[in-house]
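We close this part of the discussion by returning to an individual protein. The amino acid sequence and the backbone structure tokens for this protein are reproduced below:
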Amino acid sequence: MREVLFVAGEASGDMHAGSVAARLREIRPDLATAGVGGAHMRASGVEITRDYAELAVMGFVEVVRHIPKHAALLRQLRARLATGNVAVVVLIDYPGFNMKVAAAAREAGVPVLYYVTPQVWAWGAGRLPKLARLVTKAAVILPFEAPLLAGYGIDTTFVGHPLLDRAQNLPTRAEARERLGIRPDEKVLALFPGSREQEIARHFAPFIESGRELARRHPGLRVIVHGASTVNLDALECPFEIVRGASFDVFRAADVALCKSGTTTLEAAIAQCPMAVAYRTGGLSYAIARRVVKIPYIGLVNVVAGREVAREFVQGALQPVAVATELGRLLDDAAYREVQREGLIEVRNQLGTPGAAGRVAEMISGLAG
């Protein structure tokens, strides 16, 4: 039986791949599915050949330590491609490794669909000629990516952001608060420190201290920490309530949020929750990034908007007093908060329409023949 080989190296990629695999199973039951992923892909019937949790890593320096694991996995994938049973390779994000998989697939004569393509708009166009050589089709999730990739001859489709599929039935503020046991009159700050252990190591302490500082200034403030299923949060080090999963519920219930930069900021935009954006990484990784990153913003909400919709606190600027001051202004200044809300609506409107998983599944079906 011919198969579609998925490769996702992180939690978000596993989620996106799982949704696509579920739709693919509906329209092409004749195709088996296998690959590198996790719980979401497994729940969609994908045969997991390697769990992504063994591979997930971020930062320039940190990646070096994982080279042996990646090399061994690449050998395994090459062997699978050599069987002749793989109809299509579907790569989801994770470019440092997946570009190597794309090269292996091209050598084996297997078509490659890249879903959630490398962020060339951040790192510069250096990867685009290589991407054009290796990728058969690209499915992009940000509107400005399509003309950029198409300009290099890459067959590209803007499929819309997959977050919209999860957000089709958002709860009202009252419904979200009832689910979380929050009174209608309570002021709520939500903290989203990240979905990777490395992010938690860098963000947890300053996020908690920012919450403490804001609570000191706003007596009665309720602080909620969102705990992703992919990380461990030490309740002994956290003076606030930890809520697992249900990120959209938390955003809809909150008055303001402190978010790690990345997809979380787009979730906040979709949920219309005012926010500040923060990020911190290792010193050497940050020094390298400053030399190669080509855009002025790190928060995806600001990247999509093309301007600073939400204030950013990056690296040394991630100081609890400064962060609490910004969050306090969003809580207290209605006009200031409304300006950000208008920006969040603009961002939401640029993300396309629901149905990304189905569109990608149709692209895979077409490549499989």
Residues 197-217 form the longest helix (21 residues).
